[in-house]
Fold each of these.
Amino acid sequence: MMARVDFWWLPRAFVLGLLAFVIFGPLTNLVLWTVAEKWYFPHMLPLEYGFSFWQRVFSPRGNAMESLMTSIVIAALTVIASLALAIPAGYALSRLKLPFRGLILLAFLIPQAFPNLPVYVNIARFFYQIGLNGTIAGVVMVHVTHGLVYAVWIATAAFSAVDIDLEEAARSIGAGPFRAFRDVTLPLAAPGLMASAIFVFLESLDEFTGSYFVGAPDVNTLPLLLYTAGSGGNYQIASITALLLLVPSIGFMLVVERFLRADVLSKVGH
Amino acid sequence: MDMRAFLKVEKMSVGYGTTTVLDKLDLGIEKGEFVALLGSSGCGKTTLLRTIAGFAKPFAGSIQVADRDVTQMPPDKRGMALVFQSYALWPHMTVAQNIGYGLKLQKHSRGDIDARVSEMQNLLGLSGLGNRKPGQLSGGQRQRVALGRALAVDPEILLLDEPLSNLDARIRLTVRHEIRSLQKRLGITAIHVTHDREEAMVMADRIVIMNAGRIEQQGSPEEVYNKPATPFVAAFMGAENVLSMQVSVKGEQIELQEGAFNAATVTARAGRRLATGPVELRFRAEAASLTGNGDGAALEPGALELRGQVASVSYPGGHWRHAVRLGKDEILVDADTPFDQGATVKVRIPAQSLFIFNTPEGPAGPHTF
């Protein structure tokens, strides 16, 4: 076969370049803003660079650290609550021959399916009546309803990927049902459960609407801080906060691939 | 059924949902006996084993072990151990942890467990592999770990669910004998599910042949091989040549009436339960002998002689296999020397190798499986 010049690289290179710009353009802008001391129109690049805004964010008077702590505490509690529900639910959904299994799985999608705003306004009104508004517990509950779809779907897939023979092998040589679950099923499903925990954690860390209506102004999470800073025109603070939010997301996304194996992924939603 | 049997299954019916797999099944197994449940896939043998193990609940009937009713007990309380077809080794535990798990559950001391585990490893030729994970073992080694895990807890009854079917053909042959000699040495009661006739023959004290959820016949390997009770058992035990004939029973003699390819033949009844009428006659390819048309050697008394044409010849090894055409039917006959294709030959089947069964009422199709 004769070697031919392939002119297809041209449109490909163009599309890839465009894609890179779409992804990395805003990110570059974000990073620049975090270190910009002075930057105004019509200049392409900041006029002065420096870390004074970082100092402000991390100073004892700045509330970034406090917001970060609140966000992490809420995310951790959300993970614990979601897994406490998702482990038994996922196990039951994977092992028992339940009628309407598909519908039950679909039901966990409902919180994502409806428009968030009206739902959260009503939740906020209801939480206000029972005194949950402006509490960490209230925000955690809102995040759990949101995160449960990841937790339950992935947990179900993780348990389905554990061959039932492995559990029965433990039963047959003398392990009771709970012991077999603890010693065999749970450790083997752990990577999948870890992945679902990561998704729930990130989802909670990022969540804005629910936190705003239920939590603000008493519970101040990182996205709320970002919103306040952004709407106040303080792009440096907003960018630094955004970067803080980005770090765990990227970090976890890099490791989640290790936990979510193909045999688990192929069972998600089935 | 022996009322003193160690494991007693009585009038047990099992099924899934609305389908019944086993209907009112009875089975008794002696202490120290090695029983093979033999049948083709879907015959209910695995369901029977899983019900004995406690993983399927019977609709009706009972299961007793040493006069203790275990019908409603969960699997972990039955004192049995099941070896799975897939081995079901725990991939997150080492070989030693897999074998020792049952002992840990029984709350033995660490020292006892270690001693027993290394004893098991020595017994099964797994020494030095204790720290490996199952993923690092060969198929044969995994199979042994599965066996060791089951044997370590010293079960009253060892249940084996086609444990050799995932092994290479060559390893399978040696493992058969290993399991058999181990079972004899340790005196364990064992139930082995298999679809492999030869495997059942070489391993078991008693073979239970199952078909469509029922026990067709049970007995020692010689018994089921030489005295099949039903056409199904005969076919399963390799007597796949089948001919339809008419017989008339006269006291202790049976007369096979003259047909298109055979002369009338009188043979001894020899305990066969037969009535005058249409019959199905079965025999094995290797039980018959082939002679040329001109061969004048005397026919031994009671033997059946058939005349046909050689349709094809093949050499599967050790002997020549001939397909002999009898009108529309074709039978397979082995011979030490090949006959030419198209040659007219005489097929002789000795009396003791003829399996004769009354054809059930109505149009009975050939028994295939």
Amino acid sequence: MMQALTDFFLLAMTAIFLENAIFTRALGTSRMLIAAKRADQIFAFGILITVITICASIFTCVINMLLMRYSWWYLVEPLCYVVCMCIVFLIVRYALKDFFPGLYDKVGQMLPLATFNGAVLGPLLLSGHQGYDFWQYLAFGLGSGIGYTMALLLVSEGQRRLRRTNLPRAFRGLPISLLYIGILSLGFYGLIGHQLPF
Amino acid sequence: MKLERIRKISKVRGYLSPLFSNNPVLIRGLAMVPVIVVSNTLRNAVAISIVIACMALPVHLITNFFGGKIPRWFRIPTYVLLSSLFFIPAALLMNRVVPYTVDGLGVFLPLLVINSMVIGKAEEYAVRHKLIPVVLDALLHIVGFALVMCTIGLVREFLSSATIWGQPIEWMNKIPAFALPFCGFMIVAFLAAGAKAYRRFTHRVLLAAAMKDEGE
């Protein structure tokens, strides 16, 4: 029991730090660069992503175990995973609308963006490709969501400080944000020491 | 330069803007994920461009026809479902044109179904405009994306493994770091800065010409 718990949290910590969604694989980068700027919005977005990844892992784990042995799996894999994400999206939407209407008014707008995001689909696909079992799926999903939230906070704080500095005009906005994430990504690569598997 | 000619040039520049001055990757920040990570060889870049082209055009066309009839809260899930349906023929075509790239692309091939250039552009443009502008806009965005992707793929493959399309080139020592994601971030950052500088430069040239003509 203790060993299982240790393995669970070890995989979650690996997903947060060593296999961070943004800094090692650039998952969910497009949305992030245009997304929420305030800390409370980022927390809400991150919590949504974590919950949706964990819920979708339950369905995708079963589908992956049934279908991954077929040669045509790489063609229908996105469709099956997207159907699972749609089911989770509908469950979360109706659950929020019926039981927490105040919360739905605040986070309802970001629900589609949070569900159909590289930071949700990426960990599901990675867990499938690496052949994880059910608890490893959940651990990786949990860690990935937390890691994405932390990376979002880091990047938004970095962007806030960069906006106050005197940069060349060509670098203001998107270019300097990418350079900043690239340097952080270099730091993470120094921590890991090798290229992570796709 | 006459004012009418400047207006025509501005109009053409506006239509062709997704190629350089309003490039979807470098200026707007769409579709970053494949450009940063899997543009490490030219084969991968061409494969991703083919898949995006075969997904974006049909999704935008169908969105243009039926998008307005879908309830707003379910539009993004619909676009993602459509793009994952069109992913199947796109991946088969990619396998025909550029074989043996599926394993090299890993998870980034199926991740293209939630690509912001396909989904985001469908919601932002394809739903609200007429058919011909939507088709032209989609084609120009695909070409703009493919230009950036293949340029970065060529440079990164050449510098990281001294090959072009898998053929070795005798040039200099390899720098394997160029195949890693952090170099992808930095290369895209510098190219984005270049695109922004180009956009400012052309805008200032046209503005100066227009003001000079008005002054005359």
